[in-house]
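A.,

Following up on our hallway conversation. Structure tokens first:
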């Protein structure tokens, strides 16, 4: 069985609250609306402006390594999020291409299934939230391996066993620290914890794999203060908002006071459908996805001297929700 490109249809979800979509946001790099007349021409060589379909104003999206947005954003913001919610794969660690994909392929090889997911194919499969769901959709589309059982119930058990082994292989990569944290993650987590902001990780990945990332790469002291919502804790995966709604309810916070950090379009859709503010930090697989509805888009969180944003900037986005 090869790794030919497949086309998969995905469900879509609309936001339960339109506030985050329609509310006018100021510039990412300032508390004031910026215009071309107020900025040097060199600024526009490294900045992209996206037009907001629901507003006559623009949202500035900072993606250049040269732009330092946090200095302006942190100067006057007094609002802090009630909770800072991170996706795991692609946000905490850029795990997909050289982590999860490799672990899936090693599992397929061990089980002699004759399946290999190349880089491009796996990028398409990532449009489906959840590893078990990903494998099921792939086999439904291309045909089940000869070694797979025939009944639907037995196939569910077969997929679960594959996913369990894949998770074991992935955890070995994390425990051996072969995949590093993305720039700025530890900094932003520390800022939140120091200010009493609740921190959680909300992921479609297996709970053991997410826990391994948090404990091994962020360290046990941080890990004990971070709540994890992952895997099958909810019946429907992203882009369904269930995992973010569960997180807000469990943490006892209003969704409108939460800031989510995501890297994918399906994660953004889930956060927005839950009524939350969402910052996107693009990852290797998601750089070309549509993030028009994001409250801000960056290439990463970043550490000084190339910091893109900080906790105060997250708070400044919440402040703008209440500006007329």
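Then the amino acids I'd put at each of the 324 positions:
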């Amino acid at each position: 069985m090869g790794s030919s490109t497949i086309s998969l249809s995905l469900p879509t979800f609309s936001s339960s609250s339109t506030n985050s979509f329609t509310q006018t946001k100021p510039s990412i790099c300032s508390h004031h609306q910026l215009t071309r007349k107020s900025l040097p021409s060199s600024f526009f060589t490294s900045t992209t402006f996206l037009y907001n379909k629901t507003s006559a104003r623009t949202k500035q999206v900072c993606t250049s390594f040269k732009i330092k947005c946090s200095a302006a954003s942190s100067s006057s913001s007094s609002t802090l999020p009630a909770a800072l919610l991170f996706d795991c794969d692609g946000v905490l660690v850029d795990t997909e291409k050289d982590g999860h994909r490799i672990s899936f392929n090693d599992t397929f090889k061990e089980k002699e299934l004759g399946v290999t997911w190349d880089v491009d194919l796996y990028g398409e499969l990532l449009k489906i939230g959840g590893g078990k769901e990903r494998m099921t959709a792939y086999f439904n589309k291309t045909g089940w391996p000869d070694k797979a059982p025939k009944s639907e119930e037995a196939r569910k058990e077969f997929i679960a066993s594959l996913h369990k082994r894949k998770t074991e292989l992935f955890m070995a990569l994390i425990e051996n620290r072969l995949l590093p944290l993305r720039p700025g993650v530890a900094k932003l987590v520390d800022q939140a914890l120091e200010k009493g902001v609740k921190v959680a990780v909300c992921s479609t990945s297996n709970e053991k794999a997410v826990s391994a990332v948090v404990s091994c790469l962020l360290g046990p002291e941080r890990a004990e203060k971070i709540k994890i919502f992952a895997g099958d804790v909810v019946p429907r995966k992203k882009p369904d908002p269930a995992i973010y709604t569960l997180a807000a309810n469990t943490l006892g916070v209003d969704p409108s006071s939460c800031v989510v950090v995501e890297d994918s379009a399906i994660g953004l859709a889930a956060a927005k459908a839950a009524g939350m503010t969402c910052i996107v930090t693009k990852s290797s697989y998601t750089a070309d996805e549509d993030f028009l509805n994001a409250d801000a888009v960056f290439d990463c969180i970043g550490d000084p001297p190339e910091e893109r944003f900080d906790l105060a900037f997250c708070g400044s986005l919440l402040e703008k929700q209440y500006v007329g």
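The radius of gyration is 20 Å. Curious whether your intuition agrees with the design.

B.
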